[in-house]
C-alpha cells in the first residue's frame, strides 16, 4: 500500500496486521476517489474509522491543511501512528483520536471543529451511515459545501434534498458514494 499522489507520492504505508477487522482502501479506489474530488488544497478532513489512515494521509499528501484520524481499534491506531511518524507528518497536520465514532463527533463538536471533507468507512456490518451523517450535521461539524465520501458494501440511500451525489463507483463488492451537502 502506498500514497498515490502529492507530497508523499510513492511512499509506502504500513498495513495493519488485523486485516479481518480493518479494510484499508485499495490504491486504485483511493486514486479514483481523489481524482473525483479534485483540488483539496487547504481543506480540513475527518477520517472517521481511519483504519490504516491511508485515506487521511492521502488527503494530507494532496494538500489538506489538517486531517483528524478517528478509530477505536488499537491495531488501527498503532498503524495510523506508525504511518504518520514514518512520513514525518506532525500534529498540526494530523491528529489521532482514540475514540469511538459518537464520542469523537461529540468531542470535535465541543472543540468547534468544522470539516470540508469527511471520509466514512465504518465496519460494513454496522451500517451506521445515515446515523453518523445526521449526527455530523446536528453537531455542526460540516462546513459549507462539505464533501462526504462513503465506502460501503451495498448502495446507501441518502436524502436527495440534503445531499447531492457527485459520483458513485462500484468496485466488485465495494461501493463508493461522493456526496456534497450544499448549504
Blueprint (SSEs and pairs):
Layout: H1 27-37, E1 44-48, H2 54-61, E2 66-71, H3 74-87, E3 94-98, H4 101-110, E4 115-120, H5 129-138, E5 142-152, E6 164-171, E7 174-181
Explain this structure to me?
The protein has 183 residues and is an alpha/beta fold. It has one domain: Rossmann fold, CATH 3.40.50.150. It is built from five helices and seven strands. It has helices at 27-37, 54-61, 74-87, 101-110, 129-138; strands at 44-48, 66-71, 94-98, 115-120, 142-152, 164-171, 174-181. Strands 3-2-1-4-5-7-6 form a seven-stranded mixed sheet, sandwiched between helices. Helix 2 links the parallel strand 1 and strand 2 (66-71). The chain is globular and about 40 Å long.
Amino acid at each position: 500500500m502506498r500514497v498515490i499522489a502529492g507530497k508523499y507520492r510513492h511512499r509506502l504505508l504500513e498495513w495493519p496486521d488485523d486485516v479481518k477487522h480493518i479494510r484499508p482502501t485499495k490504491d486504485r479506489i483511493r486514486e479514483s476517489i481523489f481524482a473525483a474530488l479534485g483540488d483539496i488544497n487547504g481543506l480540513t478532513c475527518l477520517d472517521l474509522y481511519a483504519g490504516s489512515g491511508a485515506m487521511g494521509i492521502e488527503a494530507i499528501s494532496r494538500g489538506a491543511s489538517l486531517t483528524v484520524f478517528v478509530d477505536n481499534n488499537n491495531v488501527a491506531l498503532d498503524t495510523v501512528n506508525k504511518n504518520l511518524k514514518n512520513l514525518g507528518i506532525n500534529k498540526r497536520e494530523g491528529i489521532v483520536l482514540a475514540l469511538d465514532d459518537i464520542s469523537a463527533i461529540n468531542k470535535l463538536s465541543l472543540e468547534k471543529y468544522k470539516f470540508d471533507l469527511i471520509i466514512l468507512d465504518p465496519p460494513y456490518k454496522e451500517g451506521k451511515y445515515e446515523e453518523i451523517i445526521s449526527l455530523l450535521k446536528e453537531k455542526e461539524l460540516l462546513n459549507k459545501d462539505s464533501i462526504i465520501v462513503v465506502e460501503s458494501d451495498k448502495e446507501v440511500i441518502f436524502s436527495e434534498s440534503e445531499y447531492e451525489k457527485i459520483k458513485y463507483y462500484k468496485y466488485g463488492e465495494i461501493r463508493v458514494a461522493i456526496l456534497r451537502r450544499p448549504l
